C-alpha cells in the first residue's frame, strides 16, 4: 500500500545518480522523504524528528562509495541508523538465585498478553526451565480459561483463583514455591494507561509478586499512541523489556522504534504467528528493513534456511548457472518452496519485486496444475523437454487433465527461464563466483542496502 | 542478479498466463538466496537492561465519560500554541499537521485535508489561526457526514438478520458482540450468538458469558472446528426458533494471512447461503491501530464486503484517526464507538465529536 523508501527516493535522486556526493540541499529533500516513510510506518512524530536529525548529520558529505549509488547509500545510512536505534542492549535473562524467577506481563486490552504469556512459558520450557503460569486477568470473561487451555497444550501448570487479582497473583507465587517451579509468569488484565484505578491495581500486583522482569506487550500494529502507553506503563511498573506481538501481520511496525526510543529498554521477543512456538528473539536488522518497507528479506532467507537443504540448494544454483537446470530440479525446488507457506505471501516479502508481480495471483490451483503437468512427463522428458513432440504433448495433457496449449506454454517458459539463467551464469562467471558477481547498481536498491548493511563496508 | 531483475521485469510485462514464470522466478531467487545466507553472521546476545525508578499517580474510580475527557485533556498543547499566534505562519501549519499525524490520521490523508485550506489561506480568505482550525474541523466533519450510520436491521425479513463481526486479533470483536447483544435484547429483539471463533482457546466460553449476561442463545462448535459450519448451524437454529438476529463471532486474523482470509470469505459465503440474510458485516478496529488499519479495511472488505466499522477502545489515549482515512478513502462508514468495558459503552459514532477530539 505504501511506497518503499527507495521508490520515494527514486524521484528525488534521479538527478544526481552520477554524482558521488550529496549536497546539503539534496539531503534536505531526501530527508523529507525519509520522514514520510517513517511516519507511514507509524513511527511516532517526535521520534521521527530525532531520527531525521541523526541521519542528517551522517548524510551530509557522506563519502562516495564504489558499491552503492547515492540512493542506496542513503538507504544504507537510514537502515544502519534504525538498526542501531532498535538494537543496542539485548535482554539476557538472569535467573533469580531464590526461585522462582517472576515475570510480570502488562499491556493494553487485546495487545496479546495471554497468548504471549503462554508463548513465553513455552520458551522458558525450551530453555530447560520449569515454568508456571498465573492467570491474574479476572476481568475479561474466560481469560483464565484461555490460559488454562494453552497451559494444557504446553503441559505447563496454570494457577488461578477467583476474587482479587492481587491476591491471586500472591497465591500463585506461593503455589509456585511449594511446587518448586523455577519460573513464574503472571498474566494480567488488559488496561488503559490512563485508567488510574487499573494502573494502581497492576502496581499492587507487582508489589505482591516482586517480579524480576516486567514485560510490556505491545501490538506491532500500534500507531502514534505507542509512546504514551509505553511511558505510562514504565512510570507505573518500571518496564524491563518489550514483547512485540502480532509481528506476523503486514504492519510496518514503527511502534517498535518509538517504544525502544522512549523507554531505552530492549525489545526482547517478537511473536510471529498463531502457533505457540511462533515466538522468537527480536532482530533489530529485520525490523529496520521492515519499517522502511524493504520487504522482510532476512525473515525470508531464514525461512528458506529452515526448509532448504543447503548443499542441495547450492547444487541447484550451480546447475541453473550452467544451464543444466531440468524440470525435475524445478519440481523439487517448488516442493521446498511450498513448505515455506503461501507463494503469494513469499512474493510479497520479496524486496524490489515489480508491483505487477507482487499483485499477481498465484493460486494453489495453478500451482498444482503446473505440478500435474510435470508429473505427467517421463523422467527423460523432464530432463530434456525438447523431446516433447506432438504425441507426447497430447499424452501429457491428458495425463495432467490440462490442454495441449498449457503444456506448450510451460515448456516454452521453461526454455526461456533456462536461457535467462544461463546468461546470468555467464555474467557471474566473469566476476568470479556467483555471489561475488553481485554489484550494487544491478540489484534492487533495498536489497543492495540491506546486504551491504549486513556484510559490512567493502 | 541483473539477469534476475530483467527476468522479473519481463515476467511482469508478460500479460499471458504466467504462473510458471512466476514460480520459476521464485525458485531461482531461492537458489541464489541460499548462497547469500552462507555469509550471514549472528550477533551475540549480551547484557541486561538497567532499571528506572518507579513512580505512580493514583486516584479513585471515575466514570467512562470522565476518563474520556481526561484522555483528551492530556493532549492539548500542539494546537493551543497555534491559537496564541495572531497570524497563520509555517508554525501554524506544522502544528496542525502534527496534531493530525499524532492522531493517526496518516500522512497522505493529512495532506489531503490540509491542501484546500492552504489555498484559502493563500487567497486570504482565511487569515486567523482560530478560523483556520475551525475551517479544518468543519471540513473534516463534512467529509464524514455522507454516510448512513444506522445498523442495518431488516424487520420485514421472515428469517433472521445476520450480523457478521470480523477483525484482527485483539481488536475487541467478542466484547463488541457481547455489548451489541445486550443492546439489541434491550430493543426487544431475540438474539442468538454464533461462536465462530473456534480457534482461540476459550473464545467460546468468553462468548457464552456474554450470552448469559445478555439473555441471548448461543451455538458453539468444537474447538478447532470449521467456523462456517458453526455459523451455518447458528443460522439454522435461529431460523427454527424464530430468532430475530444472529450475531456471528469470528476468530481474529491478520489480513495478510491468505489462508485465514480465505476461510473468512467462506464464512461469508456460507452465511449468505443459509436461511437468513447478512445485513451487516462489522469490522472492529482498535483505536490504537496505526496506518495498518487502512490495509485491514481493504483486505477484510475484499473477503467479506464490510458494511461498517466499529472503533473500539476510544476511551484510552489513542484517537483512532485511521478510521477517518478508512471512511473517507474507502467509503466504509464508522458505525459504532467503544468507550469502555460495560454494556452501555458502545455508542453511535458522532462525526463532530470525533473530529473535535482529534485536535484536543
Using the alpha-carbon principal axes, give the shape of chain B. Answer: globular
Largest two-chain interface: A-B, 128 and 111 residues
Cα-to-Cα separation, first versus last residue of chain A: 34 Å
Main beta sheet of chain B: 8 strands, mixed
Order of strands across the biggest sheet of chain A? 3-2-4-1-5-6-7-8
- Total of DSSP H or I helical runs spanning 4+ residues of chain A: 21
* Poorly predicted runs of 5 or more residues of chain A: 428-443, 454-458
**Percent strand of chain A:** 5-15%
Structural class of the secondary structure composition of chain A?
alpha/beta
Class from helix and strand fractions of chain B: alpha/beta
- Mean pLDDT of chain A, rounded to whole units? 82
Give the N-to-C terminal Cα separation of chain B: 52 Å
Number of alpha- plus pi-helical segments of chain B:
14
Description:
The complex is a heterodimer of chains A (458) and B (360). By secondary structure, chain A is α/β, with parallel strands linked by helices. Chain A contains 21 helices and 8 strands. The longest helix of chain A is centred in the last third of the chain and has 27 residues, at 404-430. Chain A starts with a helix and ends with a helix. An 8-stranded mixed sheet of chain B has the order 3-2-4-1-5-6-7-8, with helices on both faces. In chain B, α5 (90-102) packs antiparallel against α6, α7 runs antiparallel to α14 and α8 (173-186) packs parallel to α9.
Amino acid at each position: 500500500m505504501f511506497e518503499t523508501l527507495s521508490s520515494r527516493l527514486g524521484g528525488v535522486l534521479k538527478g544526481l545518480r552520477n554524482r558521488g556526493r550529496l549536497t546539503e540541499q539534496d539531503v534536505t529533500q531526501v530527508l523529507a522523504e525519509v520522514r514520510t516513510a517513517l511516519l507511514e510506518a507509524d513511527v511516532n512524530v517526535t521520534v521521527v524528528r530525532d531520527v531525521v536529525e541523526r541521519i542528517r548529520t551522517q548524510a551530509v558529505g557522506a563519502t562516495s562509495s564504489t558499491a552503492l549509488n547515492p540512493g542506496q547509500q542513503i538507504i544504507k545510512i537510514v537502515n544502519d541508523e534504525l538498526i542501531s536505534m532498535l538494537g543496542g542492549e539485548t535482554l539476557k535473562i538472569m535467573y533469580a538465585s531464590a526461585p522462582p524467577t517472576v515475570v510480570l506481563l502488562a499491556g493494553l486490552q487485546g495487545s496479546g498478553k495471554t497468548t504471549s504469556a503462554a508463548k513465553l512459558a513455552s520458551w522458558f520450557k525450551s530453555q530447560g526451565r520449569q515454568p508456571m503460569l498465573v492467570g491474574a486477568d479476572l476481568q475479561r470473561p474466560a481469560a483464565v480459561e484461555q490460559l488454562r487451555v494453552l497451559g494444557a497444550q504446553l503441559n505447563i501448570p496454570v494457577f488461578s483463583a477467583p476474587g482479587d487479582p492481587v491476591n491471586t497473583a500472591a497465591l500463585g507465587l506461593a503455589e509456585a514455591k511449594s511446587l518448586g517451579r523455577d519460573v513464574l509468569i503472571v498474566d494480567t488484565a488488559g488496561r488503559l494507561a490512563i485508567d488510574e484505578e487499573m494502573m494502581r491495581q497492576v502496581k499492587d500486583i507487582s508489589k505482591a509478586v516482586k517480579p524480576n522482569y516486567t514485560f510490556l506487550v505491545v501490538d506491532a500494529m500500534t500507531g502514534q499512541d505507542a509512546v504514551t502507553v509505553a511511558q505510562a506503563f514504565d512510570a507505573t511498573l518500571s518496564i524491563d523489556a518489550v514483547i512485540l506481538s502480532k509481528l506476523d501481520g503486514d504492519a510496518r511496525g514503527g511502534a517498535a522504534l518509538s517504544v525502544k526510543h522512549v523507554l531505552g529498554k530492549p525489545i526482547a521477543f517478537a511473536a510471529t504467528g498463531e502457533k505457540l512456538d511462533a515466538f522468537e528473539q527480536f532482530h533489530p536488522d529485520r525490523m529496520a528493513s521492515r519499517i522502511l518497507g524493504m520487504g522482510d528479506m532476512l525473515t525470508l532467507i531464514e525461512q528458506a534456511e529452515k526448509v532448504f537443504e543447503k548443499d542441495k540448494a547450492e547444487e541447484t544454483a550451480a546447475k541453473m548457472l550452467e544451464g543444466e537446470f531440468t524440470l525435475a530440479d524445478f519440481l523439487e525446488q517448488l516442493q521446498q518452496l511450498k513448505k515455506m507457506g503461501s507463494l503469494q505471501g513469499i512474493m510479497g516479502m520479496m524486496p524490489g519485486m515489480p508491483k505487477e508481480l507482487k499483485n499477481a495471483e498465484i493460486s494453489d490451483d495453478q500451482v498444482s496444475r503446473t505440478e500435474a503437468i510435470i508429473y505427467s512427463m517421463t523422467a527423460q522428458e523432464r530432463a530434456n523437454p525438447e523431446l516433447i513432440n506432438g504425441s507426447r504433448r497430447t499424452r501429457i495433457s491428458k495425463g495432467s487433465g490440462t490442454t495441449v496449449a498449457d503444456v506448450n506454454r510451460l515448456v516454452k517458459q521453461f526454455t526461456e527461464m533456462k536461457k535467462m539463467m544461463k546468461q546470468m551464469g555467464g555474467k557471474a562467471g566473469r566476476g568470479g563466483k556467483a555471489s561475488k558477481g553481485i554489484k550494487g547498481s544491478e540489484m534492487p536498491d533495498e536489497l543492495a542496502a540491506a546486504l551491504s548493511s549486513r556484510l559490512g563496508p567493502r | 542478479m541483473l539477469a534476475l531483475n530483467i527476468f522479473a521485469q519481463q515476467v511482469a510485462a508478460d500479460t499471458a498466463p504466467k504462473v510458471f514464470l512466476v514460480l520459476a522466478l521464485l525458485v531461482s531467487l531461492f537458489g541464489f538466496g541460499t548462497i547469500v545466507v552462507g555469509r550471514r553472521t549472528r550477533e551475540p546476545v549480551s547484557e541486561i537492561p538497567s532499571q528506572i525508578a518507579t513512580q505512580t499517580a493514583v486516584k479513585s474510580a471515575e466514570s467512562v465519560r470522565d476518563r474520556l475527557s481526561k484522555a483528551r485533556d492530556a493532549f492539548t498543547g500542539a494546537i493551543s500554541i497555534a491559537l496564541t499566534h495572531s497570524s497563520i505562519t509555517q508554525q501554524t501549519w506544522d502544528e496542525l499537521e502534527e496534531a493530525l499525524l499524532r492522531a493517526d490520521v496518516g500522512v497522505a490523508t493529512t495532506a489531503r485535508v490540509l491542501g484546500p485550506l492552504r489555498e484559502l489561506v493563500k487567497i486570504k480568505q482565511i487569515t486567523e489561526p482560530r478560523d483556520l482550525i475551525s475551517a479544518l474541523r468543519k471540513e473534516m466533519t463534512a467529509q464524514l457526514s455522507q454516510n448512513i450510520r444506522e445498523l442495518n436491521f431488516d424487520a420485514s425479513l421472515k428469517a433472521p438478520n445476520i450480523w457478521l463481526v470480523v477483525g484482527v486479533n485483539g481488536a475487541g470483536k467478542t466484547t463488541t458482540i457481547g455489548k451489541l447483544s445486550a443492546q439489541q435484547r434491550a430493543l426487544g429483539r431475540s438474539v442468538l450468538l454464533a461462536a465462530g471463533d473456534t480457534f482461540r482457546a476459550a473464545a467460546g466460553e468468553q462468548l457464552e458469558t456474554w450470552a448469559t449476561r445478555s439473555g441471548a442463545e448461543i451455538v458453539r462448535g468444537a474447538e478447532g472446528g470449521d467456523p462456517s459450519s458453526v455459523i451455518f448451524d447458528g443460522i439454522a437454529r435461529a431460523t427454527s426458533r424464530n430468532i430475530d438476529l444472529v450475531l456471528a463471532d469470528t476468530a481474529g486474523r491478520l489480513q495478510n494471512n491468505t489462508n485465514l482470509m480465505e476461510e473468512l470469505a467462506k464464512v461469508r459465503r456460507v452465511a449468505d447461503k443459509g436461511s437468513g440474510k447478512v445485513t451487516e458485516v462489522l469490522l472492529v478496529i482498535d483505536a490504537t491501530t496505526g496506518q495498518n488499519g487502512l490495509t485491514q479495511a481493504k483486505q477484510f472488505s475484499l473477503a467479506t464486503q464490510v458494511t461498517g466499522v466499529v472503533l473500539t477502545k476510544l476511551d484510552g489515549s489513542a484517537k483512532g484517526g485511521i478510521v477517518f482515512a478508512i471512511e473517507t478513502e474507502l467509503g466504509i462508514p464508522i458505525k459504532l464507538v467503544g468507550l469502555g468495558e460495560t454494556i452501555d459503552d458502545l455508542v453511535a459514532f458522532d462525526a463532530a465529536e470525533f473530529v473535535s477530539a482529534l485536535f484536543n
